[in-house]
Amino acid sequence: MNDIWAGLEAAFWLIVTLNTDLLEITLRSLQVSLTALVIASLIALPLGTWLAIRRFRYRRATIAGLNALMGLPPVVVGLIVYLLLSRSGPLGVLGLLFTPTAMIIAQVIIITPLIASITHQAIRELWADYHDLLISLNTTKKQRIMTLIWDARRTLLTASLAGFGRAIGEVGAIMIVGGNIDHATRVLTTAIALETSKGDFALALGLGFVLIALALAVNFTIHALSRTERDSTW
Amino acid sequence: MRLAVTTSFHNSGLSDLLLPAIRADLGLHVQLLVVGTGQALRLGRAGDVDAVLVHSKTAEDAFVSAGFASHRRPIMYNDFVLIGPASDPAAIRQASDVKEALRRIADAKVRFVSRGDDSGTDKTERRLWAAAALQPETFDPWYKSLGMGMGASLNTAAGLNAYILADRASWLNFGNKRTLVLLFSGDPALFNQYAFLPINPSRHPHVKWAAAAALEKWLAGATAKALINDYKIAGQQLFIHNAQH
């Protein structure tokens, strides 16, 4: 229990004194994971919707594959992205390894299947209700997708937040492709891993509490901005 | 420029002292990748770093002769120590040399934690077992090979109340010692040389060769010598600078 109290105390002092290193890695955590979230959402929301309304030959296999990819081990994603971006790999000339961009790429790969799967599930149920109406109104495919996405926005918000949660708390992949370089690619989770390895449990736990607080803050902000739990429709 | 260094070097805290000085003297921003010696050499081989600072002479010599680094420059050394529970059930405090200490651990079959991650420390440990005519592969379950860095392994040893081989710097800087204490040190076989190896630009034309050369000159020079030799934790000198001019 002493270690946990020491962790809470460390978190308190880190925040109260507005530690500059903490501020830097927190902002980098946010920057990496939010960028990954935006890119993944731009891919996954239309993809999940398209999978729900479109009938094609390997649909079942595609959906099963997508669901399986939700459990993709981040370490494996990290290793593959690392091998691709390494100077000796096929994309080595881009010089992206050990940069925040590499971390964003890895996180996009990790969270896109998760967001797409939840999107598909939500839209499929909605499509069952809307099918006849949207067909009878003679809508184009694009209009149908936009309508479904808009009307399912609350569930899709949950899908995106689940993706964000997985991204911000992830350490296996970004440790490999980012390298945990101080003042360059260090984020909250890799800093926690580092402090744990030094045996400084209080600081590690303190950073952990900061991470939890950050996740809460982002979730509250997004809910506030999207005006859920307000109006008549809560 | 990017420099791959060993976990034991970084965990000692010396890098926090050297990096700002390098920045002030050379205007060079060094990005550290903290990994085991084995992985550091792999990063160098792939051209993903501009130089490596590691501690395993055999692996370094092979690296140079394969042409991945242009040369090897010894910079400084510290030593390895045997850590274990304060009660010392294998009685290695009384051992006359490290071979005898390891034999006593094997005879007593007390828990021993090994890095098992192909790092410089891991390679040294395996070399020491071999010197004592013992094969870790044949040991009972008391020998735990982890595949983790120095800090994580020390955490595990503290949790299991086990023996472990560590470098002195990491041990002194480690924050979670619990019942573990330093039990054996001082044998010349535990000598731990760190060397700087710049990646060969003829293998990887994109490496920042000039920056690596400037850093090497600085590390071998007088400023680095003073900083390294004066670095103390709990009153103990950690590293001894021995680069040749």
Structural class from helices and strands of chain A?
mainly alpha
Distance between the termini of chain B: 23 Å
**Unreliable runs of chain B:** none
Overall spatial form of chain A: globular
* Structural class by secondary-structure content of chain B: alpha/beta
Overall, the morphology of chain B is globular
- What is the number of strand segments of chain B? 12
Biggest interface reads:
A-B, 21 and 25 residues
Residues in helices of chain B, as a percent range: 40-55%
CATH topology group of the largest domain in chain B: D-Maltodextrin-Binding Protein, domain 2
Q: Percentage of helical residues of chain A?
A: over 70%
Number of helices of chain A: 10
CA radius of gyration of chain A: 20 Å
Oligomer: heterodimer
Roughly what is the average pLDDT of chain A, rounded to an integer?
89
CATH class of chain A: Mainly Alpha
| CATH-defined architecture of the largest domain in chain B | 3-Layer(aba) Sandwich
Which runs of chain A of at least 5 residues are low in confidence (pLDDT < 50)? none
The fraction of residues assigned to DSSP E strands of chain A is under 5%
Domain unit count of chain A: 1
Mind telling me which CATH architecture of chain A this is? Answer: Orthogonal Bundle
Brief summary of the model shown:
The complex is a heterodimer of chains A (234) and B (245). With 234 residues, chain A is mostly helical.
Secondary structure topology:
The complex is a heterodimer of chains A (234) and B (245).
Chain A: H1 2-16, H2 20-53, H3 59-69, H4 74-85, H5 100-136, H6 141-151, H7 153-168, H8 172-178, H9 188-197, H10 201-225
Chain B: E1 2-6, H1 7-11, H2 14-26, E2 31-35, H3 37-46, E3 51-54, H4 57-65, E4 73-85, H5 98-108, E5 112-114, H6 120-131, E6 143-145, H7 150-160, E7 163-167, H8 168-173, E8 180-184, E9 191-198, H9 209-220, H10 222-230, E10 232-233, E11 236-237, E12 240-241
